[in-house]
Amino acid sequence: MSSTAGLVIPCKAAVAWEAGKPLVIQQVEVAPPQTMEVRIKVKYTSLCHTDLYFWEAKGQTPLFPRIFGHEAAGIVESVGEGVTDLQIGDHVLPVFTGECGDCKHCKSEESNMCNLLRINTDRGVMLNDGKSRFSINGTPINHFVGTSTFSEYTVIHSGCLAKINPLAPMDKVCILSCGISTGLGATLNVAKPKRGSSIAIFGLGAVGLAAAEGARIAGASRIIGIDRSPKRFKEAEKFGITEFVNSEDHDRPIQEVIAEMTNGGVDRSVECTGNIDCMIAAFECVHDGWGVAVLVGVPSKDAVFMTKPINMLNERTLKGTFFGNYKPRTDLPSVVDMYMNKELELDKFITHRLPFSEINKAFDYMLKGEGLRCIISMEE
Ligand SMILES: NC(=O)c1ccc[n+]([C@@H]2O[C@H](COP(=O)([O-])OP(=O)(O)OC[C@H]3O[C@@H](n4cnc5c(N)ncnc54)[C@H](O)[C@@H]3O)[C@@H](O)[C@H]2O)c1
Ligand SMILES: [Zn+2]
Ligand SMILES: [Zn+2]
């Protein structure tokens, strides 16, 4: 038993009180974990676009006050009733989507879209009792995607925690909690490029560059990176991309440019922009006969995908992926081991570091499109 098990823990958290306003670091009370829940001490967290979108709350249901954060690494402080696969002291990665192990998705080898613990951005409470574990002077503070890692302690459903190698440096592997695994898995688990093949990556943000890292690991020989922001090409140089295409430099559809460059089309493509035209281009630029396109980006809710059915009849395949098709608890530990075995490079994604007290600066970097990932240390 840890000395704090069963007790309310007062600690610091970065609370978002209003959309788009700086987070306020203040004391919150964190209740003990209930049935199937785990309380963790967050060691490192990073900021991902999804935090930013919901903090800005432009177009999404605003839910405040709220504690954001979903890319992180931490240590189990205490466990609730019924938790048997995690113990005090275990090193874990929280994940915004979960794996209950019992539903038909969890039982299917092909799906990671757990019925019980699938991402829910509108819910600000825990499933067990429909209440929050965070409060300030009795006022409940909403959770975010079941993780809320911008807090020194947080309570998470045990199905949303992957137990990892305790030797893995948490200030690095924390970025595997969301964006990097998504892009990596989109290539390795879904696009599956063959050694020596060609692949086009649309969008060179952290997710697209993680898809490129997957292509490097798979041994693709031509990795074509497409973006409209030249600023992105500088950063992308470290990622094994062999050719850059600025979509703004061309006055014809980019799929035609790629098809011409590759004598008929690429073997695989991965779309990581969220832009509907890029999604269509990503599909139409793959080679007929065998090409596979994978959509990762989240489009605006009214976007419609239009292409001529003949493009499919000509034996091209269109796929989509959620969290790179990784099952969080089953698969993430081995992604951490890929890093430990030096197969996967993570350091190149980490462009900034900040102490928790300066977390608002991480929002500024992201708003300005500066860098890829900023690691926030909870203990500095
Ligand atoms: N499917 C999933 O499970 C999942 C998980 C995480 C993120 N995502 C989505 O992945 C996408 C990428 O995330 P990110 O964090 O890397 O974002 P990001 O904003 O850092 O990167 C997107 C890149 O796409 C480029 N881009 C946008 N529109 C373009 C266009 N029309 N033409 C050319 N380039 C264009 C931008 O310049 C930018 O460099 C987002 O849509 C995000 O919501 C999906
Ligand atoms: Zn499930
Ligand atoms: Zn994320």
Explain the layout of strands and helices.
Layout: E1 9-15, E2 24-30, E3 37-46, H1 49-56, E4 71-79, E5 91-94, H2 104-107, E6 134-136, E7 139-141, E8 153-157, E9 161-163, H3 170-173, H4 179-191, E10 198-202, H5 206-218, E11 222-227, H6 231-236, E12 243-246, H7 254-261, E13 268-271, H8 276-284, E14 292-295, H9 310-313, E15 317-320, H10 328-340, E16 350-355, H11 359-367, E17 373-377
Helix pairs in contact: 4-5
The chain binds nicotinamide-adenine-dinucleotide and zinc ion (ZN) (2 copies).
Describe the structure.
It is found in: Cytoplasm. Its EC number is 1.1.1.1. Belongs to the zinc-containing alcohol dehydrogenase family. The chain is an alpha/beta fold and 380 residues long. It folds into two domains: 9-177 and 346-377, Medium-chain alcohol dehydrogenases, catalytic domain (Quinone Oxidoreductase, Chain A, domain 1, Alpha-Beta Complex), CATH 3.90.180; 182-321, Rossmann fold (3-Layer(aba) Sandwich). The protein is built from eleven helices and 17 strands. Strands 3, 4, 5, 8, 9, 16 and 17 form a seven-stranded mixed beta sheet that branches. Strands 12-11-10-13-14-15 form a six-stranded parallel beta sheet, sandwiched between helices. The protein binds nicotinamide-adenine-dinucleotide and zinc ion (2 copies). One zinc ion binds at residues 99-100, 102-103, 105-106, 114-116. One zinc ion is lined by residues 48, 50, 70-71, 178-179.
